[in-house]
Amino acid sequence: MERTMMMNPFLISQFRTRHLTTLMSVICLLFLPLLTVAQSSSSEEGKVGLSKLALAIEEADSGATLLLEPETYAINELQINKPVTIDGQNRAVLDIGGEGYGLIVKGDHITLKNFEIRNSGFGFMDDYAAILVEDSRNILIENLTLTNNFFGIFVAKSEKVEVLNNTIISNAERQTTSGNGVHIWYSKDVEVHQNEITGHRDGMYFEFVEGSMITGNNVYSNIRYGLHFMYSDDCSYIGNEFRDNISGVAVMYTKNVIMRHNRFVQNWGANRYGLLLKEINDSVIEFNRFDTNSVGIYSEASNRVQIERNEFYNNGTAIRMMANGVDNRIVKNNFINNVFEVSTNSRSNFNHYEGNYWSQYEGYDLDRDGVGDVEHRPVRLFSLLAERQPLALIMLRSLMAGLLDTAERVFPVLTPKNLVDLKPVMEPIQ
Amino acid sequence: MRVYWQILRNEFQTLFRAKWVLGYGLIFLLLTDTLFRFSGGGTEVWVSVSNIMLLLIPIISLIYGILYIYQSRDYLELLLTQPVNRSTLFWGLYTGISAPLTVAFIIGSALPIGWHGGLASGSASQLFFVLALGSLLTFIFVGLGFVMGLYFYDDKIKGFGFSIVIWLFMAVIYDGLIMVIIFMFGDYSLETSVIFITMLNPMDIARILILMEFDISALMGYSGAVFNRFFGSNLGILVSGGMLVLWLAVPSWVGLRIFNRKDF
Fold first, then answer.
1. What is the DSSP letter of A421?
2. Contact (CB<8Å) B222/A396
3. B218 contacts chain A (CB < 8 A)
4. Is residue A33 pLDDT above 50, yes or no?
5. Which of A181, A273, A346, B193 is most buried, by CB atoms within 10 Å?
6. How high is the pLDDT of residue A42?
7. 3-class DSSP state of B116
């Protein structure tokens, strides 16, 4: 539609008429020396630089591309409210200086890319963020490095926001004094791809977000949840890795969620879960890997969730399924080397288990059709005891516990009678 | 010292000639080999080996220790007529039984690694851990067997009976009692006392050490923070290791005492 023309190292602009182009380039050339002076000097002159950047944005025509010099710009609550592209050319740094917001984006068709923003303010009343996107549409945030900010990217009441390939790092120590890496509230059609997020409170936080796509993010070592979403229907989470976040991943009060090919790894510790489902309905959890978590999936009041073809490897408890959820289907998963395969809190079971591979299965397959001839009961009596008295875990792996389990398996008295896999497969599913 | 080595060498020769020990090693060899074949050589192999080991080693060592005293009564009494220090004789016999059993266990468990393409990364320390614990258990229970054999020197039925009861008590009944305590007094803060009680049973100590090595994820998921802090810390390892050494020292010392004072 509009052609791009290179004017000078600072400004590339898109214009409709040649006339305007010439005028603009003159203006730019006038600004150029001012800007360079401002950047290379002390904080007082830094403010001049800030105003220059602000002025440059103000002066830029809609659709313009601003190329930043490889310098450190001091910014504070810099408003961007017209369709521009700000390109840091991978070298520019915007320093907020520890107070307030960084960039405040309110507009349409705005692109931010290839620079670093650091040192936002932090506060108990305001959610200071490196980038605040508010009441906006068609926003692209790409290849940014956000360092040491309270919130990284805060999106509110916006549509079609794309957050792509950013590195978001902070050094949160306490939950009360830290913010989220990517925080999205009341928005639609948000895409978050290929970001690296660490050291925040929640790596990614979505609330009232609809129809969003979250893929390929690497979220690790955050001090609360790696991913945290509530009331965010119709979202897809594909190919993300959540590692060593203090509370794993928690998703709540949502329907139609798709989670595929994610990895939930090393969420170890008291009350740590790989994936915590609370009131999640009609959702699909497929092809994920749950590795070395205290609890792989913790499901509470979740209904009609399809848990299929996942790998549960080396977890304390692979699935903790509370009895207040119904019609969940746990099929064709691999349960390998978990201490407890399934645990629950009731003698009733309203969920369906079928065709899984259980490494604790003790049955046989005489007709050699790959399906075990006797059913498998994944709930061990001992897990029930441990639940009532956590201290009883000290008896794990004792002959006593083994005898109890075997007796219970032969003749279930305390464990749910109908929580069985009638068709356990003999070999792990590829 | 020379006499000690002579006795030790003699014991080794006799035991390996008797093929008993070879069979014992073969059990572990077959076990490890099968586990390698079925589970592919990761952590699971050593978890399973440790499971078997925790039950098998105590009973075999115990029976073997007591059996030796009963079987080689003539040989023992013959040696006693020689100008040999009783302590030397005791240590020679004791280590002469325990060491071959330990060697058989270690070789049997470790040999299959050779033809199954080495260790999976990270499981070297686990292997070492399992083998070390198994060896310690062997020495402890051979010592206990000696004590029982020497104490019930003339009453074999009693000796065997008590040995089996000891094993049963340590392997099952003791744990059952702990469970009862936990569930009866669960409302009180029991962690410290339960740790103390488990520390009195060598099989429990070994089991819990293995638990900490392999199942830490499950344990950390629950609120048993006190014992997690204890067993997970260096102090815990030190104390439980110390208790095992105590379990090694006390029976052998009691055995030595009986042996020294006994009128054969």
1. B
2. no
3. yes
4. no
5. A181
6. 38
7. coil
User: Are residues A140 and A280 located together in one domain of the fold?
Assistant: yes
**Contact B179/A391, CB-based, under 8 Å?**
no
Distance from C-alpha of A396 to C-alpha of A402, rounded to nearest angstrom: 8
**One domain, residues A217 and A144:** yes
Domain count of the fold of chain B: 1
* Whether residue A37 is found in the same domain as residue A94: no
Task: Let me know if residue A197 belongs to a domain.
Answer: yes
CA distance A295 to chain B (A): 7
Q: Do A269 and B220 touch (CB under 8 A)?
A: yes
Query: Is the residue at A420 inside a domain?
Result: no
Tell me: do A143 and A51 sit in the same domain.
Answer: no
Give A150-204 pLDDT, tens digit per residue: 999 999 999 999 999 999 999 888 777 789 999 999 999 999 999 999 999 999 9
Strands (E) in B62-152, as ranges, are: none
In sequence order, which residues have a C-beta less than 8 Å from that of residue B223 and are 6 or more positions away? Answer: A270, A390
A90 and A59, same structural domain? no
Nearest CA in chain B to A337: B44
| Cβ-based burial of B65 (10 A; exposed 0-12, middle 13-18, buried ≥19) | buried
Asked if B217 lies within 8 A of A268 by C-beta distance, the reply is yes
pLDDT at A15 over 60: no
CA-CA distance, B172 to B110, in Å (whole number)?
Answer: 28
Q: Across the A/B interface, how many CB contacts are shorter than 8 Å?
A: 102
A positions 225-284 inside 8 Å of B (CB): 268-272
Binned at pLDDT 50, 70 and 90, residue A136 comes out as very high
CA quadruple A156, A158, A164, A168: dihedral, nearest 10: -10
Are residues A386 and A239 part of one domain?
A: no
CATH number of the domain within which A323 lies: 2.160.20.10
Residues in chain A: 430
**Domains in chain A, number:** 3
Q: Which of B42, B208, B220 sits opposite A270 (nearest CB)?
A: B220
> Does residue B171 sit at the A interface (CB-CB below 8 Å)?
yes
- pLDDT for the residue numbered B187: 83
* Mean pLDDT of the region A331-338: 93
Question: Which of A67, A98, A120 lies at the terminal end of a domain, its last residue?
Answer: A67
Residues in chain B, overall count:
264
Tell me the average pLDDT of chain B.
Answer: 86
Residues of chain A above pLDDT 70, percent: 88
**Measured between CA atoms, how close is B136 to chain A, in angstroms?**
18
A177: which DSSP letter? G
A8 in any annotated domain: yes
pLDDT tens for A57-89 read 888 888 899 999 888 888 888 999 999 999 999
Mean pLDDT value of segment B169-191? 89
Range(s) of the domain holding residue A26: 1-67
Residues 281-340 of A with CB under 8 A from B: 292-295, 314-317, 337, 339-340
Tell how strand A145-147 and strand A116-118 pair up: parallel
Asked if pLDDT for residue A50 goes beyond 70, the answer is no
* CA–CA separation, B136 and A119 (whole Å): 57
Do A317 and A406 reside in the same domain of the chain?
no
Per-residue pLDDT tens digits for B22-71? 999 999 999 989 888 877 667 778 888 888 899 899 999 999 999 989 98
Task: List chain B residues with CB under 8 Å of A343.
Answer: none
A204 and A255 together in one domain: yes
Contact yes or no for B224 and A293 at CB 8 A:
no
Residue A391: its chain B contacts at CB < 8 A? 182, 186, 190-191, 194, 224, 227
Give the model's pLDDT for residue A32. 46
Position B75 scores a pLDDT of: 87
Do the chains contact at B211 and A396, CB–CB below 8 Å? yes
Residue A391, both tokens: 């201290």
Q: Which of A343, A398, A400, A406 should be substituted to probe chain B, the one whose Cβ sees the most B Cβ atoms within 10 Å?
A: A398
- Let me know if B224 is exposed, middle or buried by CB neighbors in 10 A (0-12, 13-18, 19+): buried
Task: Give the structural domain span for B116.
Answer: 2-261
Q: What is the ipTM of this complex?
A: 0.81
